[in-house]
Amino acid sequence: MTAQTFLITGAASGIGFGIAKSMGLKGHQVIITDINQQRVDEALTELKKNGVSASGYPLDVTSSKDLDNLMASLNGVRIDVLVNNAGIQHVSRLEDFPMDKWQLILDVLLVGPTRSCQRMLPKMRAQGFGRIINIGSIHGLVASPFKSAYVAAKHGLIGFSKVIALETADTDITINTICPAYVKTALVEKQIADQAKQHGMSEADVIDKIMLEPMPKKSFIDIEEIAHTVEFLASKNARNMTGQALVLDGGWTVK
Asked: What SUPFAM superfamilies does UniProt report for this protein, alphabetically (predicted)?
C-alpha cells in the first residue's frame, strides 16, 4: 500500500491512538488531533517512542474556530484519509439526562464529523482522491437502554455517510462507517461503572450480562481489528465500497 497521510480526530487515546500507532508503524504519515494540547503532546511523545512519524494539533470538533485553525495549519498538506473518531459518552435514563450533555454528545458524534467532512471534501476533490472513515458503533444499528443520545448520534452517522457516499460518487472518494461492539477503552471502562449504577448490578455482571451477552463470541473487540479495517478502507482495493456500515460485533446482529 502506498504511504498515505491520515488525519485522525480524538487520537490522543483509545481507538484513535491505536489507529494512529498502527498506521504509523506501517509507514504512513499520521496527524493526530484531540481536544487538549497536553494530551496531544503526550500522545506524540508515545508515538515517536514507537518510531511513528506524527504531528498533532488541538481540535475541539464542535468548534468552527478550531477547525479554521486546523485547516490553516494544514494549508498545502495533502490529507488522504480522514478518520472521524472523537467521541464522548453519558449513560442515564432520559428522565435524568441533562439536556446540555445530550446536545454535546450529538455535537461531538454527529455534527463534529459533518463539520470535518465539509472542510476536508474540497481538498479531497481537488486531489481526486479521499477516504473518509467514521468510527461508529454497534449502537448505530441496535439500541441499549440509558444511551439515548449516543444511539441517536451513531444511527445518524450511518445515514449521513450514505448521503455523502452519493454526493461523492463522481470521484475517487469514499465514506464508510466502522461499527464495533464494545472495545476495552477508557470510555468503555467508565461505561461499566455507570451502567452498574443504572442497572443496580456489579461491574462484573455488567460485562458478562450486558456487554458480552449479546455477542456469540463473548469477546471485546480489539483495537487492532479496527485498525486493520481502517487500512483496508483506505486502500485502492476499497474504491467501490462506500456508504457502508462495516460491523465488527462478534455475531451480535446476526441473531
From this structure: NAD(P)-binding Rossmann-fold domains
Instruction: Reduce the secondary structure of 145-195 to three states and give it as a string.
Output: CCCHHHHHHHHHHHHHHHHHHHHCCCCCEEEEEEEECCECCHHHHHHHHHH
Catalytic residues: 150
Residue 191 cell numbers, joined = 461505561
Q: Which three cell numbers stand for residue 168?
A: 461523492
Burial string for 158-188 (b: 16+ CB within 10 Å, else e) reads bebbbebbeebeeeebbbbbbbbbbbbbebb
Residue 233: DSSP 8-state: H
* Distance from C-alpha of 62 to C-alpha of 110, rounded to nearest angstrom: 10
Pick from 40, 44, 65, 28: which is nearest to 234 by CA? 28
Q: What does pLDDT average to over the chain? A: 95
Tell me the per-residue pLDDT of 61-92, one tens digit each, with 9 for 90 and over: 999 999 999 999 999 899 999 999 999 999 99
How many whole angstroms separate alpha carbon 165 and alpha carbon 132?
A: 10
Report d(CA 227, CA 6) in Å as an integer: 12
Report how far residue 224's alpha carbon sits from residue 217's, in angstroms, rounded to the nearest whole number. 17
Domains and CATH numbers, the chain: 5-181+222-248 (3.40.50.720), 182-220 (no CATH)
Helices (H) and strands (E) in the chain, counts: 9, 7
Mean pLDDT by 10 residues, the chain (255 residues): 93 97 97 97 96 96 97 95 97 96 98 98 97 98 96 98 98 98 82 83 88 92 97 97 98 93
